[in-house]
Amino acid sequence: MDVANSTIFFAQAEKICREVFERLSGNLFESIEIKQFESSYFGVDEADFTKEQSAFFSIIARDSVAEEMQAQNRNVVISNSFFDENKINFFVITYKNRDEKKYLKYQKFFESLFSILFDFLKEKWCEGTVYFYNGSISTIIVRRAVDDLVTEISKRCCKYNDVSLYENINLSLLNVISDLSYQTYEKGETQGMIYFTNDKSNADYLFEFQNYEDYGFFLQDNLKLLRKLLELTDVKSGIGIISDTNRIYGIGSVKSGCFCHSVIFEDDHKWTLFDEENELLAMKNSSPVFVSNLMTKRDFVNYASRIFPEKADSEKDEISTMYNIIKALIKQKKGTILVIMKDAEKHIHKYQDLSMIIKPVPLDERNVEKLSSIDGAIIMDENCVCYGFGVVLDGLDTGTGNRARGSRYNSSERFFNLYKNEENTGLIVFILSDDGNYNFFPEM
Fold first, then answer.
1. Structural domains in the chain?
2. Nearest to 78 by CA among 20, 43, 70
3. pTM of the predicted model over 0.70
4. pLDDT the model gives residue 216
């Protein structure tokens, strides 16, 4: 691929990578590039440098890329090698410092996700396709990674006595679990637990169905029965529906030491998938939930002191109050926007018809939760005094919006673009999504 087309390709790839990262981990993505190795690097004639030979040289080339990235102190994900235009190629994604605990917790999912993302980009590169971006690709990639992880559960449950029974794989398992999370029973939201195991004798039954064939399969046309059965389960006691992802065998718990996966349903259409006791994936409203760990107070103080330098050594310690307010908003697990800006009292009157203006009131972690229950932004000044809530933000459209994010994020970005200054001081916009992830403008 020539330089001009390569430039276009990576502009398209960067958009997709950024949106994938933002769906899962916030603004961690930095860049994507390609590392290429020609035959001369290995001292081999170009005529003898074949795809078959490249498998051996790929190990050397990958080690070289890893060493280069380490020397530059960069955090990277490196793709598997691929052979194209008589070269060994690797895609390299650079990201900001990630939450290692979160990555290790969901490692299987992230590995699947990156594999799917890289395979997509490899295909486009080898085809010579340079215009391939659209706003739905990141959604498709994330959805496929979720689907692959859940389908793998069914594959494992269909393996009995080391004999694979792949014709029994439930390819609809993700859809069934997701749809079940939306089912109600006597107006109650879905709660409860399901065990998936490869042998029904792995369970200690409270109630075992005598003719389990009569109860149908673990499919979408059986959602009402599954929802009723969840009423018999108890997460705290470890009591759940027993299934092999196909048949429904009864209600009980899995014996100690026996193979199992489990799904726990909570309110608000949330469900979590476990491999024995290890959390594999959490979903809410059909989207992955990777709740960012609350930033440390030190991190926030350093950040806010740059934005409001006059408050860095204030005796009233307004920055600590800001931190406590934001911490309270994150813990309540409901989407909201908090604007902290100088001259907030003057600014709020621009929104007379688009907000609820109140007499100035000091905010803290106790009273802010009440205001956040109303849609729209909360506006306070650098002294943590609030002047209005339910504010519909306006802003400046710079053409940098993100289709992967909702209206709350994009309107906040436009608002920040309109009122920011060159020094990025005097204004913080905090955006909390319904899934628990959060962002700041300017970035921390």
1. 3-135 (no CATH), 149-288 (no CATH), 297-441 (3.40.1700.10)
2. 70
3. no
4. 67
